[in-house]
Write a structure and sequence with these properties.
The protein is globular, with a radius of gyration of 13 Å. The longest helix has 12 residues. The chain has a single domain, classed as Oxidized Rhodanese, domain 1. The relative contact order is 0.25. It has a 4-stranded parallel beta sheet, with helices on one face. By secondary structure, the protein is α/β, with parallel strands linked by helices.
């Protein structure tokens, strides 16, 4: 488990490092409200059927898994580790990400912060 502050970042403050394998397992409305740049979005309930999409992520580092607060991402990381992936839960999720002032992008900027 790592906190958002422990994730590798680029030279640009608070942006994820290029090639960081970040998987967001929140629901569509949560994703639309705001997410980390370059994260791959697969809701937790769809992960088993869409796990092949992880092949798009860099193979030379762990898959960092994030959700709203860390619960769903912990389950996803455990499942991924059990199926042969190197996965790490991001503690505190997007709530911690936002509290740390890290960069986010949103498809629905009018969404309420509760869905982060």
């Amino acid at each position: 488990m790592v906190s958002p502050a422990e994730l590798p970042t680029s030279e640009v403050r608070d942006l994820p490092k290029d090639g960081l394998a970040l998987l967001d397992v929140r629901e569509d409305d949560e994703w639309a409200a705001g997410h980390a740049p370059a994260a791959l979005h697969i809701p937790l309930g769809e992960l088993p059927s869409r796990v092949g999409e992880l092949d798009k992520l860099p193979e030379d580092q762990p898959v960092y898994v994030i959700c709203r607060s860390g619960g769903r991402s912990a389950r996803a990381a455990a499942w991924l580790n059990a199926t042969g992936w190197d996965a790490v839960n991001v503690a505190g999720g997007m709530g911690a990400w936002a509290r740390e002032g890290r960069h986010m992008v949103a498809e629905n900027p009018d969404a309420t912060p509760e869905v982060l």
